[in-house]
């Protein structure tokens, strides 16, 4: 690590300071300790030393800055009534989306709730597709028919984008089941919030996933508020990572992108290394076969301790159930982007000015995307009836007034 | 009594004629209608009521008779063929599809080692193993959701509800996810699941186990619903449903599982969107489906003796609704008697043949 620092310094001396220094794209591995230790349940926690590189940390900064800017732009678009309906913003939680991506591949599946804009971006989604979808335009990732809560990206194994709290959990276990069925060496990350953690279907799905040894990793994004209700008011035991009982769990500082990366990497390795334990079917009479007791389930629960700056959605000011001091306090002490900035500066990977320039670039990128999205046309009326059925079976469908709108789904 | 058309409708009315899939596997359709007219009829949305069974009626005898009657009426297509019971036909269809496509899997309570509570999946676990015939714990919401999630990636799960009433617990998954994901993802994901299970009035099964949920599911966009009534169409619909890219809910009936019929040896599927002409006639059209078909055929015999010529159509496809067949029929006869699956006490719950006869006579006056 010291050597790489020296080499950086030497290049600085060689180039005149008036020219913009080329920001480090060094991929030599460096090791950084996470800010806080992991708390584990039914397993040994991973090491606090995270392997990364300058280039990677820089990419974290850029990606998180882009996500932050996107959410702020969405905020102002909503206020100017270009985005309507529900809009749930993710700013403050960027480290989760970015850290997870760093640990996995695009073949691993992710499924999340309605707070999905940044996850979509992390999966490789384009800014212009995101804004178009938010504004209900054809260019949107779901052709404008989904909206804020229904972002999907099939080629990157991003399965959305779900409005009903907790309903994505069984879906996510189904994804893991399909991965096991097809014998793929991939895992599924199933994201849900502290509010959804009290849903019955979580425990139903958890039971099946553990029983059938599915490569599912349940990730609880604990931002401490289920809309307006704090965790201490809704959960008797807010230790969400322990709720799996026999399922190993890990509590992670979700504002530290490196900790998130480490935890996700750990979980994926655990799921794939231990391998699914085959369910034996003993063809022996009498009928009551006993399955050999499996050892630790391969699935895990990761609880990410994170925070959202905005309210639950755009219609929630976010200040009736928490103080402004609390929000600004978290922003000062735990902001994920600031953390990475400090890391970059202290390790001399980039200068203050370079980071500011990068932020300016990102801002421009976002503004351009918004402008482009605004140009995108709204869906045609005929789009109302497409994608109802696959190979729409000749059903005739009407709009609100039969005389005005009548179409055969074909 | 003015003639009226009974039907269920989803978002708006539905005329359903998919271009009949010209697979060579399809056996000749049993309808004998001429070329379909393009005229449309307006359908009033109507729902069927849940039925509550209390006392055992003498339906047992009726069903047995009706089954025999049907067997005699619907001639086997060819001389060869094999005889089996309805649940065996379902099993055959399922097994053939599982042989044909490794993506097909079955999940449900007691479908595997136990062989299925109505023996529809008997022997499949031995043949295909535990990964393809999955015994789930009792959590309808979760395993239905899992089936839908697996379908998003390309698997073709067949989800069995031990009783249709239990699927109410999974209604959120069926309605919000199964029905809507294809639409809200802009066509990115298809959900080729089949959700099947028995429902309907049985033998003193109690109120909660005797529900008919067609009307609840009718309002969900994006799903197809079919109801089988004979071993022939049970196997055909099961196969078609599994092959369909759309989510299909296949309604079976507890009391029909032991119906016996001869079905063709060669492979065939039934069209998911088509109704079946059971008995062509001139005077009046009677629409029916599932178990009521047998009551209607019983009534038809009486009517014929009294000099009427009823046309009986088994609508089979509940969503989308095959209005072509029905429309043509009603245009021919100008009269229609719906037989909804109504619900009061057991005998009055199920429309009895005598009542059907009376209704027809009233209409024909």
Automatic annotation (TrEMBL), chain A:
Keyword match Oxidoreductase: yes
Keywords: Oxidoreductase, Thiamine pyrophosphate
Protein name per Swiss-Prot or TrEMBL: Dehydrogenase E1 component domain-containing protein
Domain of life assignment: Eukaryota
Signal peptide: none
Cofactor(s) needed for function: thiamine diphosphate
Listed Pfam families: E1_dh
Dehydrogenase E1 component domain ranges (all copies): 62-280, 301-381
TrEMBL record, chain B:
CDD domains: TPP_PYR_E1-PDHc-beta_like
Cofactor(s) recorded in Swiss-Prot or TrEMBL: thiamine diphosphate
Protein keywords: Oxidoreductase, Pyruvate, Thiamine pyrophosphate
Enzyme class label: oxidoreductase
EC numbers: 1.2.4.1
InterPro entries: THDP-binding, Transketo_C/PFOR_II, Transketolase-like_Pyr-bd, Transketolase_C
Reaction it catalyzes: N(6)-[(R)-lipoyl]-L-lysyl-[protein] + pyruvate + H(+) = N(6)-[(R)-S(8)-acetyldihydrolipoyl]-L-lysyl-[protein] + CO2
Pfam families named in the record: Transket_pyr (PF02779), Transketolase_C (PF02780)
Annotated Transketolase-like pyrimidine-binding domain residues: 84-259
One MF term in the entry's GO annotations: pyruvate dehydrogenase (acetyl-transferring) activity
Domain of life: Eukaryota
Transmembrane segments: none
Claim: Coiled coil is one of the keywords in the record: no
Function recorded in the entry: The pyruvate dehydrogenase complex catalyzes the overall conversion of pyruvate to acetyl-CoA and CO(2). It contains multiple copies of three enzymatic components: pyruvate dehydrogenase (E1), dihydrolipoamide acetyltransferase (E2) and lipoamide dehydrogenase (E3).
Protein name: pyruvate dehydrogenase (acetyl-transferring)
Source taxonomy: Eukaryota, Viridiplantae, Streptophyta, Embryophyta, Tracheophyta
């Amino acid at each position: 690590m010291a050597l790489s620092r020296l080499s950086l310094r030497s290049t600085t001396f060689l180039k005149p300071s008036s020219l913009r220094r080329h920001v480090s794209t060094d991929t030599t591995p460096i090791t950084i300790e996470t800010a806080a230790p992991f708390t584990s349940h039914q397993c040994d926690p991973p090491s606090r030393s995270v392997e990364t590189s300058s280039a990677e940390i820089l990419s974290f900064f850029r990606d998180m800055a882009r996500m932050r800017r996107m959410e702020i732009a969405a905020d102002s678009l909503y206020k100017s009534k270009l985005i309507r309906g529900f809009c749930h913003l993710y700013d403050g939680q960027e480290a989760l989306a970015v850290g997870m991506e760093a640990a996995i591949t695009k073949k691993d599946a992710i499924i999340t709730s309605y707070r999905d804009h940044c996850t979509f971006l992390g999966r490789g989604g384009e800014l212009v597709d995101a804004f178009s979808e938010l504004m209900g335009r054809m260019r949107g990732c779901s052709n404008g028919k989904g909206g804020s809560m229904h972002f999907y990206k099939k080629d990157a194994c991003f399965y959305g984008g779900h409005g009903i709290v907790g309903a994505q959990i069984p879906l996510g276990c189904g994804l893991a089941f399909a991965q096991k069925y097809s014998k793929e060496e991939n895992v599924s990350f199933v994201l849900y919030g502290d509010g959804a953690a009290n849903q019955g279907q979580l425990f139903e799905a958890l039971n099946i996933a553990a029983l059938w040894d599915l490569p599912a990793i349940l990730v609880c994004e604990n931002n401490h508020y289920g809309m307006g209700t704090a965790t201490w008011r809704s959960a008797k035991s807010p230790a969400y990572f322990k709720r799996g009982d026999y399922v190993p769990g890990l509590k992670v500082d979700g504002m530290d992108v490196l900790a998130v990366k480490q935890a996700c990497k750990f979980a994926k390795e655990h799921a794939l290394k231990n391998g699914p334990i085959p369910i034996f079917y003993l063809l022996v009479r009498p009928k009551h076969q006993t399955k050999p007791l499996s050892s630790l389930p391969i699935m895990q629960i990761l609880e990410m301790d994170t925070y959202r700056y905005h309210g639950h959605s755009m219609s929630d000011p976010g200040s009736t159930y928490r103080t402004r001091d609390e929000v600004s306090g978290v922003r000062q002490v735990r902001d994920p982007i600031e953390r990475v900035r400090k890391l970059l500066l202290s390790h001399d990977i980039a200068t203050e000015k370079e980071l500011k320039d990068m932020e300016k670039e990102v801002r421009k990128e976002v503004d351009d995307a918004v402008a482009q999205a605004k140009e995108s046309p709204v869906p045609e009326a005929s789009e109302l009836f497409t994608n109802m059925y696959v190979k729409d079976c000749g059903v005739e469908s009407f709009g609100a007034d039969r005389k005005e709108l009548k179409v055969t789904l074909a | 009594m003015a003639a009226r058309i009974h039907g269920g409708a989803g978002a708006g009315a539905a005329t359903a004629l998919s271009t009949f899939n010209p697979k060579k596997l399809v056996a000749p359709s049993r309808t004998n209608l001429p070329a379909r007219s393009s005229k449309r009829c307006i359908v009033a949305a109507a729902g069927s009521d849940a039925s509550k069974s209390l006392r055992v009626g003498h339906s047992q005898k009726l069903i047995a008779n009706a089954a025999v009657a049907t067997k005699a009426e619907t001639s086997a297509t060819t001389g060869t063929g094999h005889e089996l019971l309805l649940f065996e036909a379902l099993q055959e269809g399922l097994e053939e599809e599982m042989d044909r496509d490794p993506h097909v899997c079955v999940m449900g309570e007691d479908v595997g080692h136990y062989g299925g509570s109505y023996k529809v999946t008997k022997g499949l676990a031995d043949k295909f193993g535990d990964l393809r015939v999955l015994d789930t714990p009792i959590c309808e919401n979760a395993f239905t959701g899992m089936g839908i999630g697996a379908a998003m990636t390309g698997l073709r799960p067949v989800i069995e509800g031990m009783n249709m009433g239990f699927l109410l617990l999974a209604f959120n998954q069926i309605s919000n996810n199964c029905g809507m994901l294809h639409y809200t993802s802009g066509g990115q994901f298809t959900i080729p699941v089949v959700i099947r299970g028995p429902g309907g009035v049985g033998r003193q099964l109690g109120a909660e186990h005797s529900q008919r949920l067609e009307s609840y599911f009718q309002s969900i966009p994006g799903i197809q619903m079919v109801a089988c009534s004979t071993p022939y169409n049970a196997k055909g619909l099961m196969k078609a449903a599994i092959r369909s890219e759309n989510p299909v809910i296949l309604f079976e009936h507890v009391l029909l599982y032991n119906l016996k019929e001869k079905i063709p040896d060669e492979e065939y599927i039934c069209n998911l969107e088509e109704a079946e002409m059971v008995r062509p006639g001139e005077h009046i059209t009677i629409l029916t489906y599932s178990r009521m078909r047998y009551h209607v055929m019983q009534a038809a015999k009486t009517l014929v003796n009294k000099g009427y010529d009823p046309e009986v159509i088994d609508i089979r496809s509940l969503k989308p609704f095959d209005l072509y067949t029905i429309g043509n029929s009603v245009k021919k006869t100008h009269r229609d008697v719906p037989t909804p699956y109504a619900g009061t006490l057991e005998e009055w719950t199920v429309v009895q043949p005598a009542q059907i006869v009376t209704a027809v006579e009233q209409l024909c006056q």
